[in-house]
Design a protein that fits this description.
Layout: H1 2-21, H2 24-31, H3 35-41, H4 45-66, H5 73-84, H6 92-102, H7 109-136, H8 143-167, H9 169-172, H10 176-188
Length: 197
Amino acid sequence: MRQKDLIAATLDSIAELGLAGATVREVSYRAGVTPGLIRRYFDNKERLVAAAYRTFIADLIAKAEAGCGDGPALSQLAGLIRASVTAPVADGRTLSIWAAFIGTVNSDPAMAEVHREGYQAFRDLIERLVGEVMAERGEPASKQEIRRHAIVLNALLDGLWIEISMGGDDFSRLDVIRIALDSVATLLGIDPAEFRE
């Protein structure tokens, strides 16, 4: 349980103060422990930050996947899309944390590995759903075609996620769920009305 508390305190620190402000002292203060206790679980700040990033990404994927629910693949995909463009997945705090982490991916091999793992896990989920949607519609696709759709769909969701998370009131006046669903339908060659059923 202590590790989870330390990771939560790290994420809170990063959300408010950025990576530089998420010092061992700050994290220990927020977690209500001594700095020495952090070193018992994590050799150094870099390992703590990598563990926090891994947890952060896993939690985002779990929240998006929770939107899938049960039922036909098209309904599950629609649920994933809805969850990906609404709070708590799409919000300013989440974007701030992600932006702090993503800045380290090109310079820190450990963070790059965590990022690759997270990206692959989410893309695998999208690939599975896209493949099931195509099969459900009687339009099975090759692995390469499914992968291509998943990559583009992931990029589409990432772009919308960033815009929505930064957009504030501009996006509160738009039906971002409809925009996302219609865009994905167009990408997959599906009548957008099918997502409304």
